Amino acid sequence: MKKWDMISVALLFYTAIVTPYETAFPDSSFSDAMFVLNRLVDLCFLFDMLLRFFLMYRDEWSNIWIAQPTQIVRHYIKGWFAVDLVSVIPFDLINFFAGSSAVQQLRLMRVLRLLRLMKIIRVIQGSDMFTRWEAKMSMNYATLALTKFAFIALMISHWIACIFRFVVDIEYYVDSSGNVYNWLTMHSMGSTPLSEMPPSTQYISALYWSVMTLTTIGYGDLVPSTLAERALSIACMLLGAGTYAYVVGGVCQILNSMDASTTEFHQTLDTLNEYATQNQLPAELTSRLREYFHSSRALLRDKQNLDLLLTMSPGLRGEVSVFNNKWIADISFFHCNDVLERAQFVTALALVLRPECFPPSEFVIREGELNTKMYLVQRGIATKDKVVYAGGTYFGEDIILHLRQRKIPVRAFSYLHVQVLSKFDLEDIMATGLYPQVHRSIRRQVVKIVFRNQFVHTATRLHKARSSIVDLPSAAAEMISCRRRSSVFQPQVNEEGTGIAAASSAVLADRVVEGVSSSVSGAVAFQDDELAASLVSRLDEVVLRLSRLEKYLLPNVSFDPPPPSRRRESMASRSSSRRGSINGAIIGVGDNNDPWHTSIQLARRTSDVHKPDLNKSGSTKKHRHRTSAV
């Protein structure tokens, strides 16, 4: 069907150009090549007419394609059938077989030639084909509109030129002396009148008068001579004035709307300049404002894209959102295996994202600011402490946690274009309950962030506690260094060094247990047994490494953790009810006979003995208790 549409458009162009010319200039009609070509065109139009009896059509009221043959035939007969039938009648063959003299005497030829112009009406059918092409092809509508206006102006000029020549044969005015009187006989080129010139010369003269009339120029060197010609001139002047206004106005509108974002940007700059003048802003500030608006010009296009997205149907909106927001696949806690759920979630996110732009050195996130926004970098660079964020990265993912103050600021290193996701918009999306897999991923990420933050916090506290012990004997440091270098170590150190080193390791064990236990509590609270079991297995590894060091520092105390099977059984039996101590449910702290509990209690007592006490001036009260006292 697509190829036949292209053939039909070519035939329509041929009809729109050649048929008026042949009608107005009959002497050029019967060359052999033109005669054969006209017959081929008639056959193609006949085939197209028969084909339309079998083509479905769309009902205007129900917007449904009708495929029943009887309804198709009825619809076509009531529509374009009469026009198509007239357009395939070979009027030039009637003239050929009837004889020129007989037809001219009866003036039948003039009527038949006029009916041949009915073929031009088929050009209107080409609008349906162009509509189908617009849906299939990507085209610049500004360029298409300019081409359309140029085509309209040329076609109208061509048709008026042919009509201006055709009026000569229709009227056939003869003066009292028996001389033919029309614009062809009244004008000449040199000593030869235009009536004796070849058809091509007459056509150029008629086209010259047509363009001159349509453009309202009117040189006056070629004027109508008869009453019919003057009547035609009046009609052409009125038509020309309307056509000229339509074409010129349309072209101006197209030129202004070829880039809507550019037009809006220029209007924004004009408003900014007016605002700066009215408020007497400093020149330096005004210059920075202009630079910002020039750099954030893409925001206007992003807003237009969002408005365009809102006009789409939900299904198409989802497909476009998934294609344009592939960065969501890089965010682990937005992961979803369900294609439909993922498309709906991405669509919901795309509708709440808001574009923003930050100039260089401006804070994107300030210290102490609440975690209410997440930023997705499109272009530019941002820095957070020693971390650099470039295009395709994101920061501020702590919006999935409870409201808290952010401790590390983020600044724009260059002009930074970001998409902003609000915490409250995300909560509204998740509150709908339509995205269970995404909700599960977010819950798991919350537990991971809590575990990471608690572990870092514990390590920081331990580092500060260790660094505050300024009188750590060199023997303890040498002992630890030797143990790291030797695979088999026989402890030969003084008791004081052993006690302080043991206290430090005990503090480490205690703090790690607290951090991991808090994370496991979060996992159970979020009803994620799989993640809780994973955290417990990681706790096994941490405690195992601590026990390897601790068995040298405290040889008389067992620091081995309980078997994993025992902890898993305890977790399985107690996490189902979600009651009781999370420490007791996961790691068995509640059992006083458990060697794990004994070692933890010993570590806590030791850490209490050797825990540094900081006064207001920041100095350290030194403790020199011995391990034997423990």
From TrEMBL:
Domain of life of the organism encoding this protein: Eukaryota
Q: Any keyword Transmembrane helix?
A: yes
Name of the protein described by the UniProt record: Cyclic nucleotide-binding domain-containing protein
Bias class Basic residues marks the residues at 619-630
The UniProt entry, under PROSITE patterns, shows:
CNMP_BINDING_3
Specify residue ranges for compositional bias: Basic and acidic residues: 605-614
The protein's location, in the record's own words, is: Membrane
| UniProt keyword terms in alphabetical order | Ion channel, Ion transport, Membrane, Potassium, Potassium channel, Potassium transport, Transmembrane, Transmembrane helix, Transport, Voltage-gated channel
Report the transmembrane regions from the record. Answer: 36-55, 141-168
Membrane topology of this protein: Multi-pass membrane protein
Q: Which InterPro entries does the UniProt record give?
A: cNMP-bd_dom, cNMP-bd_dom_sf, Ion_trans_dom, K_chnl_volt-dep_EAG/ELK/ERG, KCNH_animal-type, RmlC-like_jellyroll
